[in-house]
């Protein structure tokens, strides 16, 4: 009985919700939205991309998972860069009041800038890189946009470390590095992971925009190309793929987050 | 010279530009191997006092010396057991104690460090829980870890900052007995801060009241000349115990009685009178409306 209830909770109800949305989509395409392909037609046109997900027929004509893979690789690089810069920056902000006073305003100004605004700057910055320019520009954009949640959450986490733990470090006369590794880092880790998770979400958002503008092979690039080629079914395929991948990334991060939960 | 000495120590805090004197003219001498209890009200400045001895805070004036050396910073020669346990929640019981051992005895071999750590975990009867995290332990067990950690550093003096005040009465009694047992074993110098007079008398050689704050200071000390080992049930009928308890309690109650608080505030009475045209007024008051004699009352209340 109880087990059945649980199954309803995590399987039947979500499936029901998805069915409702697909139903609305079907009705819309049949009535007011003439250009919107119906679910059946979308599946018909997308079949070859989904059933043979790793095929490579041409630079911009690949299986959907192969495209996803291209995007994920780029996201991974940009995300790693964001964490590498963001974590130490967050630590400095959390530890030093002067540092906070100096840099917090500029961070608050840069934080809300859209990826669409950063990308052209990224491309200009790496203009001399030639063929690599679009990749470096995209990396720059991902790193700059995805970094902020990590920076701010790390700073909050460091500031929220209880005085008790710092007192322990002082009484034991732990060295600076040892205090960092044994006390500050583990104490701030739960906050940092929240930042990491939000950053990953943003990195995934940015990649689509970056690929659209640079025309790189990937889910976003494919979406834009198919829009220009008037194959609207593939736009929906891309949207669903982007959503599912984002969902999986977020779930993966929260599993990790739970594993590293310290307090 | 006494082992630990406090000479005319004062400490005040500044909040919002207002200075509050917490401790005033504290004088204390403690000999090696003595167990001294300091009792006082919550918020009287007990934790401030122990933080000064630990070196976590600096006194505004006066001198604190341990072994004739000025205390300027915290260090492992003064083992401290915090009221809030202060265990690192991401480390196990063993790792929490080992961190201290590793830090204080860096030259020992890993095997010796491990053996030393195990010994102190066994001393507080926690060997079965050595791989557990603090969150999995009860309050009493956490505080045992705190005590094991402080003792494992082999400090010259042990500072106990209300170590048992967060525990329930039964656990508290068990741990009191355990602190007594451990102290009998190696007779370390101990300063214990507590808000429980009975606890102080049960464990200490000397008991000193700290008067109610602000500006708390130490009262006349009392030597607890009740022979050890002291039994917690038998001691309740001991005449000497009753006398000490009465004296300490009376002093503490008196010290609070002397602290009178006066509150003075402006009363806003209802408008019954016509406006007082002769009253001097400032520009601010002109904007605030008519001034009546009734609104200018002040009342002082003594609590």
Number of strands of chain A: 2
What's the CATH H-level homologous superfamily of the largest domain in chain B? Answer: P-loop containing nucleotide triphosphate hydrolases
Q: What's the number of extended β-strand segments of chain B?
A: 12
Instruction: Please give the largest β-sheet of chain B.
Output: 6 strands, mixed
- The helix-and-strand class of chain B reads alpha/beta
Ranges of chain B where pLDDT stays below 50 over 5 or more residues in a row are: none
Q: Give the mean pLDDT of chain B.
A: 85
Shape call of chain B:
elongated
Shape of chain A: globular
Structural class of chain A: mainly alpha
The end-to-end distance of chain B, rounded to whole angstroms, is: 44 Å
Q: Order of strands across the widest beta sheet of chain B? A: 6-7-8-3-9-10
Largest interface: A-B, 17 and 21 residues
CATH hierarchy, class of the largest domain in chain A: Mainly Alpha
Number of helices of chain A: 10
- In helices, the fraction of residues of chain B equals 25-40%
The SSE order of chain A reads HHEEHHHHHHHH
**Mean pLDDT reading of chain A:** 86
Describe this structure in words.
The complex is a heterodimer of chains A (263) and B (303). Chain A is mostly helical and 263 residues long. Chain A has two domains: 1-36; 42-259, MetI-like fold. Chain A contains ten helices and two strands. In chain A, strands 1-2 form a two-stranded antiparallel ribbon. In chain A, a hairpin with a 2-residue loop joins strand 1 (56-58) and strand 2 (61-62). The model of chain A has no long low-confidence stretch (mean pLDDT 86). Chain B is of the alpha/beta class and 303 residues long. Helices cover 33% and strands 23% of the residues of chain B. Chain B has helices at residues 46-54, 93-104, 110-123, 139-152, 169-186, 197-203, 239-258, 283-288; strands at 4-15, 18-30, 35-40, 61-66, 69-70, 78-81, 157-161, 189-194, 206-210, 222-223, 262-266, 298-302. Chain B has a six-stranded mixed beta sheet, with helices on both faces. In chain B, helix 3 (110-123) packs across helix 4 (139-152). The chains are: A mainly alpha (263), B alpha/beta (303). At the A-B interface, helix 7 and helix 8 of A face strand 6 and helix 2 of B.
């Amino acid at each position: 009985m109880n087990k059945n209830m649980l199954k309803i909770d995590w399987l039947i109800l979500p499936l029901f919700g998805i069915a409702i949305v697909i139903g609305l989509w079907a009705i819309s395409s049949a009535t007011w939205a003439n250009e919107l392909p119906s679910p059946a037609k979308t599946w018909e046109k997308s079949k070859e991309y989904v059933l043979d997900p790793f095929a490579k027929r041409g630079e911009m004509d690949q299986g959907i998972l192969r495209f996803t893979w291209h995007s994920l690789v780029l996201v991974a690089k940009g995300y790693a860069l964001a964490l590498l810069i963001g974590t130490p920056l967050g630590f400095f902000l959390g530890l030093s009041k002067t540092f906070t006073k100096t840099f917090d305003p500029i961070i608050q100004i840069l934080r809300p800038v859209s990826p669409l605004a950063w990308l052209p700057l990224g491309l200009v910055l790496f203009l001399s890189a030639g063929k690599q320019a679009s990749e470096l520009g995209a990396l720059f954009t991902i790193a700059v946009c995805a970094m902020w949640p990590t920076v701010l959450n790390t700073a909050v986490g460091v500031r929220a470390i209880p005085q008790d733990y710092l007192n322990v470090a002082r009484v034991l006369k732990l060295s600076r590095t040892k205090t960092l590794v044994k006390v500050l880092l583990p104490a701030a880790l739960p906050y940092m992971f929240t930042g990491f998770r939000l950053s990953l979400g943003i990195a995934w958002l940015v990649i689509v925009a970056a690929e659209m503008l640079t025309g790189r092979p990937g889910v976003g690039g494919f979406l834009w190309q198919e829009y220009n080629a008037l194959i609207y079914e593939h736009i929906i395929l891309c949207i669903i793929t982007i959503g599912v991948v984002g969902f999986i990334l977020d779930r993966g991060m929260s599993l990790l987050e739970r594993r590293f939960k310290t307090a | 010279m006494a082992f630990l000495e406090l000479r005319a120590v004062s400490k005040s805090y500044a909040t919002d530009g207002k200075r509050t004197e917490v401790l005033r003219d504290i004088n204390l001498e403690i000999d090696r191997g003595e167990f001294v209890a300091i009792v006082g009200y919550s918020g009287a400045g007990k934790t401030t006092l122990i933080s000064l001895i630990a070196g976590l805070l600096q006194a505004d004036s006066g001198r604190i010396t341990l072994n004739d050396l000025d205390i300027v910073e915290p260090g492992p020669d003064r083992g401290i057991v915090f009221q809030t346990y202060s265990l690192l929640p991401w480390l196990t019981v063993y790792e929490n104690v080992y961190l201290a051992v590793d830090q204080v005895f860096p030259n020992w071999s890993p095997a010796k460090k491990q053996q030393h750590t195990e010994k102190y975990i066994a001393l507080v009867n926690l060997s079965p829980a050595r791989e557990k995290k603090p969150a999995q332990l009860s309050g009493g067990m956490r505080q045992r870890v705190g005590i094991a950690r402080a003792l494992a550093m082999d400090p010259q003096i042990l500072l106990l900052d209300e170590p048992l005040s967060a525990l329930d009465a039964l656990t508290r009694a068990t741990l009191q007995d355990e602190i007594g047992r451990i102290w009998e074993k190696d007779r370390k110098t101990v300063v214990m801060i507590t808000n429980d007079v009975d606890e102080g008398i049960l464990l200490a050689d000397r008991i000193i009241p700290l008067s109610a704050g602000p500006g708390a200071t130490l009262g006349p000390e009392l030597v607890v000349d009740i022979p050890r080992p002291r039994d917690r049930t038998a001691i309740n009928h001991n005449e000497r115990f009753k006398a000490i308890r009465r004296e300490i309690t009376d002093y503490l109650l008196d010290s609070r009685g002397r602290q009178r608080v006066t509150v003075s505030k402006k009363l806003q009475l209802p408008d019954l009178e016509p406006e007082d045209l002769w009253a001097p007024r400032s520009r601010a008051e002109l904007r605030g409306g008519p001034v009546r004699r009734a609104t200018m009352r002040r009342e002082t209340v003594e609590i």
